[in-house]
Amino acid sequence: MGGSSPRISRTTLPTVARRDKDRRRGRRRPAAPWAALILVVGVNCALYSLLQSKKEAARLDASLDATVAWRERALAAEETVAALAERLGAPPPPPPPPPRPRPPPIAHQPVHKEEPVSDALPPFYGTGVKIVGLDTCDAYRKQQKPHIRRWAPAGMFNTGTNTLLDLMHMNCQFPDRTGRHGFWQVPWGKHNPLSWRGAHWAPQFQGERRFRPDPLSILPVVVVKDPTTWMKSMCRNQYECRFRHRPSHRSAACPSPVKETQTTMRYQPTKPSFYDSLPHFWRAWNGEYLNSTAPRLLIRFEDLLWNSEETIRKVCTCVGGRPLRRFSQAHGVSKDARLGHVGPVNDRAKALRLYGSEAERFRHYTREDLEYVRDVAGASPLFRALGYDFDVDDALRVGASRRRLRFGGNLSRF
Ligand SMILES: *[C@@H]1O[C@H](CO)[C@@H](O)[C@H](O)[C@H]1NC(C)=O
Ligand SMILES: *[C@@H]1O[C@H](CO)[C@@H](O)[C@H](O)[C@H]1NC(C)=O
């Protein structure tokens, strides 16, 4: 008790004295401390909000950088960049300054003649652009306000999703020109099944939860490829898909026998999915998009190759963009050259020859293979809707024909 009373008097005394002094000086005095307090609080608030907005901006930058980095890494990994821009029709580039005069023509040509390259869709794919889902465009535009209409590519491996992305960036404009209307892949991952939508996030969306878009607000544009040529591209470039079970699957005959292409697809390293065969994989993966009740488009790889202008015009209009009047494919080459993937200048001619040749389409397939493809892939309405059906006898005859394609370069990227 004795120790506490002096402390009280020591602290209370000056306070009482100050109060008396203040009272003597009148009422104007208290304004100064209050003003100082308000000033200090105000400055702190301003500093705080400035710091917050700086932090926010840095976070947005980091998120953008991460997206760009991911895109570049993915493009580099797929090694299709230059090929896609060029194969889809960069106009014939100006002849590069030749180190030596051009070799004499014709006399030194290979003995057998190559088929002439045509820019028209080969007749065996029917006529005109084929797109499934154009009837869902109105619903999509009604459901999304103009400033948040967004699209993103999806597709199995080797179907040209990057081509679609580049062509859209070059040829489809949105009224506000913000560049916010496209993602480089659907947020659930462009090669993942549609059923992952909302449940899985592609790496560049995994960081900040609040930067994630509403997955249903994005129109998926799915690129589908003819199963007969797609299986052959899968032989050339398997990515995370494994189906080798026979020695023949390591040879030119791949993927024959098609019936034995049991497929393990690792969408995630720890989550393998299994399919009875490559055509089962094709049917199931594309079938999810086909069956979807939400707006989506399914377009053809073959139309991106031969009917790119009309295809892009339709996709662009569907998502609420405005197709540029002058269709352009040339910029893709220089843009992608930055990534160090400059292909030979005749890539497009090669692709047109490869995919335009019905003999190449059916070469090495047996009757059993072709019937299997028609049975399994053909069980999906998509197979006929996209013009991929064929007559087995005709296909065998054409595939056995002697005409062979010869290419100067390396086709592994197709
Ligand atoms: C799509 O719907 C059809 C008909 O209902 C069904 O048979 C098929 O299994 C479905 N495909 C997928 C991949 O869900
Ligand atoms: C084609 O290119 C790939 C990779 O670019 C290479 O691994 C392969 O050996 C090449 N093939 C030929 C026949 O040059």
What is the fold named in CATH at topology level? Rossmann fold
CATH level 1 name: Alpha Beta
Largest sheet: 3 strands, parallel
**Major sheet: order of its strands?**
1-3-7
SSE topology string: HHHHEHEEHEEEHEHHEHHHHHH
| Bound ligands | 2-acetamido-2-deoxy-beta-D-glucopyranose
Mean pLDDT: 77
Tell the overall outline.
elongated
Task: Extract low-pLDDT stretches.
Answer: 1-6, 77-82, 89-95, 103-114, 330-346
> What is the number of strand segments?
8
* Separate helix tally: 15
Evaluate the radius of gyration. 31 Å
* Total of domains: 1
Strand content: 5-15%
Q: Helix share of residues?
A: 40-55%
Keywords: Membrane, Transmembrane, Transmembrane helix
Biased composition (Pro residues): 90-107
InterPro entries: P-loop_NTPase (IPR027417)
Transmembrane segments: 31-51
Can you walk through the features of this model?
- The protein is mainly α and 414 residues long.
- The protein has one domain: Rossmann fold.
- The chain has helices spanning 4-25, 31-78, 81-87, 137-143, 161-171, 227-236, 278-291, 301-306, 308-318, 331-337, 347-356, 358-362, 367-376, 381-385, 392-399; strands spanning 150-155, 172-173, 218-224, 241-242, 263-268, 271-275, 297-300, 322-323.
- The strands form 3 sheets. Strands 1-3-7 form a 3-stranded parallel β-sheet, with helices on both faces. Strands 4-5-6 form a 3-stranded antiparallel β-sheet. Strands 2-8 form a two-stranded antiparallel sheet.
- The longest helix has 48 residues, at 31-78.
- It starts with a helix and ends in a 15-residue tail after the last helix.
- Bound molecules: 2-acetamido-2-deoxy-beta-D-glucopyranose (2 copies).
- The site of one 2-acetamido-2-deoxy-beta-D-glucopyranose has 4 residues, from helix 7.
